[in-house]
Amino acid sequence: MSHAHTRPNYVAVWAWLVFLLVISLLAVYLPFSQTVTVAFIFIVALVKAVLVAVNFMHLRFEQRLIHYIALVPVVLFIIMTISLIPDIVYKH
Amino acid sequence: MSSIATAERYHQPHAASVFRAGKMGIWWFLASEIMVFGGLIGSYLLFRWASAGAWSEMAHHVNIVIGSINTFVLLTSSLTMVMAHAAIEDENRGRARLYLGLTVLLGMMFMGFKAFEYAGEIAQGFTPLAGTFWSFYYLMTGLHGLHVLVGIIANFALWVMAVRGNLWPNVHQRVEYSGLYWHFVDVVWIFLFPLLYLSY
Questions:
Q1: Which of B38, B91, B187 is closest, CB to CB, to A1?
Q2: SS3 of A92, please?
Q3: Per the CB < 8 Å rule, is A49 touching B34?
Q4: DSSP per position, chain B
Q5: pTM (2 decimals)?
Q6: pLDDT at residue B135 above 80?
Q7: Model confidence over B20-51: pLDDT tens digits?
Q8: Which of B39, B71, B103, B185 is the most buried (most CB within 10 A)?
Q9: Do B99 and B36 contact (CB within 8 A), yes or no?
Q10: Cα–Cα distance between B148 and B184 in angstroms, integer?
């Protein structure tokens, strides 16, 4: 059959994911402050999640409506978490 | 559009450009799942922030080695899942069977490691009631584990259909939807791993 799109190099994506896993493991043992380390490993996690969503879940080939369906709950999650900061962090 | 026309389009096996209600449905379901795990992850972050370091001591006792191996296993299972989908697109039945089977095996391996890890933690007294960190740990990894189990069952059913030969011809969408769910479960773990294992 003919493909509507060029298939991503899945093995290369997987290799990047494993590389990023190793990087985040190494970061834990480097002598940086906890804030720097935690920020770094969560940025790495975000990159990994985007790699999976864009390539394995084929988001890069999806129409805009699917992008909105995927992104709206992420925005809602961020708003919900930030709006709870006064209640939990400062009154706990 | 009449329902007959919709049905005809839906049963076109490779009509990639046609909007499919099933795909919309699975993404809608995944969106609700983002909110389920998002609620848990958000609560975890806020309570951990509020505890001002008291959790770090508890978080030191998780098994980073098993957590890392399981991350590797799940990432690899995402690769085999997407390879199964690619094999189906290429109408290569043998490879589709192989990769679906591998995905099921890797999922079971993840669950096996997780069970071993739980057993070790409970043996050391780190039960769900051992502190707020452990309550969150068991709730989040437990809910994730249930999702892995559901994915294993779905992929196993697809593998059985592939082996028996009756997976075709409507196979393309089934494997794609099961794959979308499986990759989502992988994405959740990508965040749970640093949250629970690395940020102490």
A1: B91
A2: coil
A3: no
A4: --HHHHHHHHT-TT-TTS--HHHHHHHHHHHHHHHHHHHHHHHHHHHHHHHTTHHHHHHTTS-HHHHHHHHHHHHHHHHHHHHHHHHHHTT-HHHHHHHHHHHHHHHHHHHHHHHHHHHHHHHTT--TTS-HHHHHHHHHHHHHHHHHHHHHHHHHHHHHHHHHT-S-STHHHHHHHHHHHHHHHHHHHHHHHIIIII--
A5: 0.89
A6: yes
A7: 788 899 999 999 999 999 999 999 999 888 88
A8: B103
A9: no
A10: 10
Report the residue from A1, A18, A73 with minimal CB separation from B34. A73
Alpha-carbon dihedral angle through residues B172, B173, B179, B184, given to the nearest 10 degrees: 160
A10-14, A32-36, A61-65 — most confident range: A10-14
Can you say whether residue B53 is alpha, beta or left, with left for phi > 0 and alpha for psi between -120 and 50 degrees? left
Q: What is the DSSP letter of A52?
A: I
Distance from C-alpha of B115 to C-alpha of B138, rounded to nearest angstrom: 12
B24 touches chain A (CB under 8 A): yes
**Beta-carbon neighbour count of residue B197 at 10 Å?**
23
Min Cα distance B73 → chain A (Å) is 10
Residue A25 phi/psi, 5-degree rounding, is -70, -45
Q: How far is CA B144 from the centre of its chain?
A: 7
Residue B156, CB-side half-sphere exposure with 13 Å CA sphere: 11
